[in-house]
Amino acid sequence: MYLHVNNIVWLAIFFILGAIFGSFFNVCIYRIPRKKSIISPRSYCPMCGHTIPWYDNIPIISYILLKGKCRFCGATIPVRYLIVELLTACMFSSCFYIFGIGLKLLATLVLLSFLLVIAFIDIEMGIIPNTIVLPGMAIGVILNTVQGKFIDSLLGLLTGGITVYILSVMGKILFKKDAIGGGDMKLLAMIGAYVGWYLTLWTLFLASVIGLIYAIFSRKRKLMFAPFLAIATFILLVLRHP
Predict the structure, then answer these.
(1) Which of these, 57, 129, 143, 160, could form a disulfide with 192 (CB 3.0-4.6 Å)?
(2) Angular region, 67: left φ>0, alpha ψ -120 to 50, beta rest
(3) CA–CA separation, 145 vs 234, rounded Å?
């Protein structure tokens, strides 16, 4: 896609749209694992309980203007809020640039949005909520069915789930403990529902490589796998696009 004036305008629109969605994703990341409603009440400071006014809730801009602190109590706002908004804004605009307007863009953004929320929940809480991953599977199958790829979607879902299950059983036999969690099994099944069986296997392989490299340099023995699956999925979707 060439960067004509119209494309630059659309890139800006998708960047802003992504930042807005990123703000909502922050709500999901905080509330879903704590079993709170993502609809009500309005955004509030978890430290002092003050409802956040609209002018303090503008994605990216408000965090910078407030210098990462609550206006009312001065409590530090986790930098994760800014990171998620920026990541989502960049994700939306880059996917538009790569895929253009169409059903492929919609399916990609839906998948990557699910993965972004799940990855940050996994980082913070060490869990992958069924309330996200199970609807994600269903939506993936529906979107691929609309594109005439029902069988590929179903095979991808089964491949993701069965492959991780086999690896989990093998890991338990070899290491006498759970090597891969059940949440990872459902997450890869969800990814498979969007990308098909072939790309699912490559996603697992690339995520494992990235995770191994990170483990070597960070010297951490226990890693959350969802972030690496999210990164691998994004890389492979971009590389596979003609």
Answers:
(1) 160
(2) left
(3) 21
